[in-house]
Structure formats: C-alpha cells, structure tokens
C-alpha cells in the first residue's frame, strides 16, 4: 500500500533540498559564510535573500518528518533485524556519498538518529511528542545562549580570510578526484559538529513527530478540502516567513541567533507548504514518482553536481550566478520528475531503493513490475523510500 501524499511531499522536498545543496556544490564561498564577489548585483542579493527566506532549512524539516512517518509503515514481523540492516545500509551509502560525491551528506546523520528512533519506537505518542519538544528546546536554548554569550568573531576568520578561503575552496572544486575527496574529508569535523549540535537532535525530534503522525495516518486520508489545512496555512505562512526574514536580514548562517530564528520557525513554514501542496491535487501526481525514488534522486543530484561543477566533469564551479543556479535547479529537477515517472512505470523501486531493500531483507528483490516478488512472512511491502534527505 502506497501513500500518495507522502510520496508527493517527499518529491516536493527533493526540490528544496537540491536548491540549497547546489549552492555548496557550485562554489566554495557559501561554505565559508561569504558571498562570491563576482556576483554582487542587486539581482544576486535579491535571489539569495529569497532563498534564505523561502527555502533554507525548510525542506530538511520535511524529509526528517517523513523519515519518521515512513518508519511506521515498515513495522511488522522481523522489524528489528530489518530496520538495523536498513540503517546500516543507509549509513554505508552516506559514508560513500560524503567521500566521493558531496561533503554535506545527511544520510549518515539520519542513520544514527534513526537508531535512536528505533529504540524509542514503543513509546506512547504523548511521550514521543514530549521528547521531541524537549530536544528542539535544548537545541534552541543552546543556540540562543551561544549567540548571546559567545563572541563568534574570536573563532571565525575575518571577511578577507573567509573570501580567500572561499576562492581556495572553489579552486579545489575545479580539481580532480584527489582535490575533491580531500575537500570532503577536510569538512568532516564541521559536518560531525553540525550533526551533534543541530542536525542530529532536530532530526530525531522530527522523526518522533513523524512517527506519531504515521501511527495516526494523518496523511493517508487527506482530500485537500479539510479546514485544518487552511488553518495551518494561516498560522504557518506569517510566522514562518517572519522567521525567514529575520534569519536572512540578520546575517543567515553567520549569525547564531539568526539561525535560531530560522530553526524555531522553519517547521511552521514547512507545514504551510505541505498544507498548500495537499490542497493542490494537480501538483501531487507529478511529484509522487520522484518521491518514491527519493534516495536515488538525492544521490543523483550529487552526481549531477559533481559532473557539472567540479574538475572531474565540466568544471563550472564559480560560473553560475544565483539566478542562473536556480534555473539550473529547475531544469535538473524537471528532468528528475520526467525520468522518475518513466522509471516507475516499469520498475517497483528506484535503483538505490532496490539496493537498500536488498540489504534490508537479505535477498534480492524483484525489480520489474511484471515480476512477482515473494513476500517475506510478516513483511508487507509498503513501498516506502528512505525518507532521507540532505542537510541545511
């Protein structure tokens, strides 16, 4: 049994994830918290501002929530063993992704946070919600305390140094395998720090909320005309947009308090996006196939970025303006929608979903739709994907 709404929301989240990640794939400046001086026009700044307000940190929230939601669809006999194998496979894919494709991987973080979710799988809904809120509160309070009490300028390089580092990082992107793998490995300490202090705890909190929603099947019977969807929009858009504006106007990732404002309000804006999507049936159908093979599409985005921007491929790092980069995202994601729809007409799973399912069940699953796959005892096929996605 598939849940169209879950697939559609996951497909929608893929777009936002790529729109954020591609900025780090295409240039070394964003990772050093500065903008490329080659793109300093009013249009460039406007596009960056809109991205900060509307996209940054919002779609990671959706993927995390859906991971927890899909977790409930996979329960059955032999669930513990299958889940542990699945998380191990996800971690291995994430490690390979980090080293060879993109240093901003989230799969490894999801695998570890997913292990915590596994051990919390039997808690009551009320307890799960309390733990989620506590985790989120601890993250926010620690960020606020850090923003108020810690002088980040003592730890961060000066603007001139950051610009020099950005130029060097862009040059590394233009190198071959050795230079790119070296950059990915050099970024591991920061990746781990982010996972421990921000992405891991918030992901687990959203996993738990998604698990509660999955238990209650909140997305299964949504038609699109429910009054609650309009109420979510009425609250989520003004509060979420205000938080995004504060984040963007206060310096974005370079200001801890600005990041805290975004973290606090991003779930509300993400919820408003989902409510809007669920009210637009015409949009859900095209997005669902991409959501069904989200892991393949997520990794595919990194492969495309590697080929287009690095010296391993066309070497176009530093050549795209913010507006041009957004156009690139639209073209690539549009292509993924088409390819996903064509692929799912013939196959049961996306390529990487098929591999992960093989690891999960310990036997090779049938791939073609016309091939009958024997069902393992107590292991119904809910057709869920990893529910995973990248950071930011």
UniProtKB/TrEMBL annotation:
<feature type="transmembrane region" description="Helical">
    <location>
        <begin position="298"/>
        <end position="317"/>
    </location>
</feature>
<feature type="transmembrane region" description="Helical">
    <location>
        <begin position="131"/>
        <end position="150"/>
    </location>
</feature>
<keyword id="KW-0812">Transmembrane</keyword>
<feature type="transmembrane region" description="Helical">
    <location>
        <begin position="12"/>
        <end position="29"/>
    </location>
</feature>
<feature type="transmembrane region" description="Helical">
    <location>
        <begin position="91"/>
        <end position="119"/>
    </location>
</feature>
<keyword id="KW-0472">Membrane</keyword>
<feature type="transmembrane region" description="Helical">
    <location>
        <begin position="59"/>
        <end position="79"/>
    </location>
</feature>
<dbReference type="Pfam" id="PF04235">
    <property type="entry name" value="DUF418"/>
</dbReference>
<dbReference type="InterPro" id="IPR007349">
    <property type="entry name" value="DUF418"/>
</dbReference>
<keyword id="KW-1133">Transmembrane helix</keyword>
<feature type="domain" description="DUF418">
    <location>
        <begin position="213"/>
        <end position="362"/>
    </location>
</feature>
<protein>
    <submittedName>
        <fullName>Membrane protein</fullName>
    </submittedName>
</protein>
<dbReference type="InterPro" id="IPR052529">
    <property type="entry name" value="Bact_Transport_Assoc"/>
</dbReference>
<feature type="transmembrane region" description="Helical">
    <location>
        <begin position="232"/>
        <end position="250"/>
    </location>
</feature>
<feature type="transmembrane region" description="Helical">
    <location>
        <begin position="323"/>
        <end position="344"/>
    </location>
</feature>
<feature type="transmembrane region" description="Helical">
    <location>
        <begin position="256"/>
        <end position="278"/>
    </location>
</feature>
<feature type="transmembrane region" description="Helical">
    <location>
        <begin position="191"/>
        <end position="212"/>
    </location>
</feature>
């Amino acid at each position: 049994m598939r849940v169209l709404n879950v697939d559609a929301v996951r497909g929608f989240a893929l777009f936002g994830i790529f729109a954020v990640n591609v900025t780090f794939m295409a240039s070394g400046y964003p990772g050093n918290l500065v903008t490329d001086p080659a793109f300093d026009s009013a249009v460039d700044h406007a596009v960056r501002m809109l991205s900060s307000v509307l996209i940054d940190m919002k779609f990671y929230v959706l993927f995390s929530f859906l991971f927890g939601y899909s977790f409930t669809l996979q329960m059955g006999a032999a669930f513990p063993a299958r889940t542990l194998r699945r998380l191990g496979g996800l971690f291995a894919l994430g490690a390979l992704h980090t080293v060879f494709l993109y240093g901003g991987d989230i799969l490894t973080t999801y695998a570890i946070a997913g292990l915590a979710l596994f051990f919390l799988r039997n808690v009551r809904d009320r307890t799960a919600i309390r733990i989620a809120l506590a985790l989120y509160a601890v993250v926010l309070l620690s960020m606020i305390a850090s923003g108020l009490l810690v002088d980040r300028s003592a730890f961060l390089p000066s603007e001139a140094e950051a610009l020099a580092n950005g130029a060097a990082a862009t040059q590394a992107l233009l190198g071959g395998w050795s230079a790119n793998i070296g950059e990915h490995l050099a970024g591991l300490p920061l990746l781990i720090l982010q996972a421990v202090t921000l992405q891991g705890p918030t992901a687990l909190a959203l996993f738990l909320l998604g698990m509660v929603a999955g238990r209650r099947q909140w997305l299964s019977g949504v038609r699109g005309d429910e009054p609650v969807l309009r109420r979510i929009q009425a609250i989520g858009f003004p509060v979420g947009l205000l938080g995004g504006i504060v984040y963007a106007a206060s310096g974005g990732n370079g200001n801890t308090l600005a990041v805290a404002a975004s973290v606090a309000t991003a779930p509300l804006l993400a919820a408003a996006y989902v409510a809007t999507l669920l009210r637009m049936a015409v949009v859900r159908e095209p997005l669902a196939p991409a959501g069904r093979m989200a892991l393949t599409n997520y990794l595919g985005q990194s492969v495309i970025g590697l080929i287009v921007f690095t010296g391993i491929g066309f070497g176009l790092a530093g050549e795209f303006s913010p507006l041009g980069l957004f156009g690139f995202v639209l073209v690539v994601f549009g292509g993924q929608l088409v390819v996903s729809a064509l692929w799912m007409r013939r196959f049961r799973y996306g390529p990487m979903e098929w591999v992960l399912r093989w690891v999960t069940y310990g036997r090779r699953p049938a791939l073609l739709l016309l091939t009958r796959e024997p069902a393992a005892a107590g292991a119904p096929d809910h057709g869920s994907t990893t529910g995973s996605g990248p950071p930011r």
